Amino acid sequence: MPFAQLKDRALISVSGPDAEHFLQNILTTDLDTLGPGQAKPGALLSPQGKILFDFLVSRAGDNGFQLECRADIADDFVRRLMLYRLRAKAEIAKQDHVLVTVAWGDDSTASDFDSIAVDAKALADTRFRDVAVRRSYGGEAKDGGNPNAWLALRIGNGMAESGSDYQLGDAFPHDVLLDETGGVGFKKGCYIGQEVVSRMQHRGTARRRVLIASADSPLPAAGTELTVAGRPVGALGSVGGRTGLAVARIDRVKAAVDTGEAIMAGEVPVTLAIPAWAKFSFPQDAASAEEA
Known about the structure:
Blueprint: E1 3-6, E2 9-15, H1 19-24, E3 38-45, E4 51-59, E5 64-70, H2 74-85, E6 91-95, E7 100-104, H3 111-114, E8 123-125, E9 133-137, H4 147-156, H5 194-203, E10 208-214, E11 225-228, E12 231-240, E13 243-249, H6 250-259, E14 263-265, E15 268-273, H7 286-291
Parallel strand pairs: 3-8
Antiparallel strand pairs: 1-7, 2-5, 2-6, 3-4, 4-5, 7-9, 8-9, 10-13, 10-15, 11-12, 11-14, 12-13, 14-15
């Protein structure tokens, strides 16, 4: 089983009798649907509906949760959670220097992963539909596994992450497919930014989406603007050789395809495709969609 060890992640623990109620009222994830052994995506939003922090959340015992996030945003995330805690009986703490190991593929070759994972209770990363991905917390760094293979897997499945693919404070949950990966609970009660996200869902007004970019030559660096006839349509995120992720306006991409205009990443022509598992589609009438 291929694996990669991620050294740039952190864990935030939230525990206590009010932990679930507290988190359910502020995060996009519906914790009522979070089962044992699962790691589900989610976000803490601004009141305007933009992503301030992204994470994977899992259960830790009867009254505890762990939020896996980027190490460089963990302290700010803890401070924001503290701000919202008020009188809730919930303890919030950051676990420093936690090694995250991800493994994927056929369980018949799981021994490679199991030999380095201290925590036998690996979590299922529920974002992935076409391949089984497990995450384990703890242990010591070994050879690091194959981070390039992990990057390729993430790109191939359209899994965007902040920092690599978009900037915090600049994206709505729909932009990065949290609405389709289980990161937004549309049947739960109110949470911060809920009105904006619900309105976008019910009106079908999401225009920016994560797409998979491919080219006949190596793609330029992450952050390179995507253009059509000099007009911006999006930007590249994570790049691995000739493939990468992009967050782009799907109405403008569809219009370019309909008119046969080239989509450029710098000087490189690219093709943009919807991840195979995703339910959204390009608008039927791109011109009308862009005017809306």
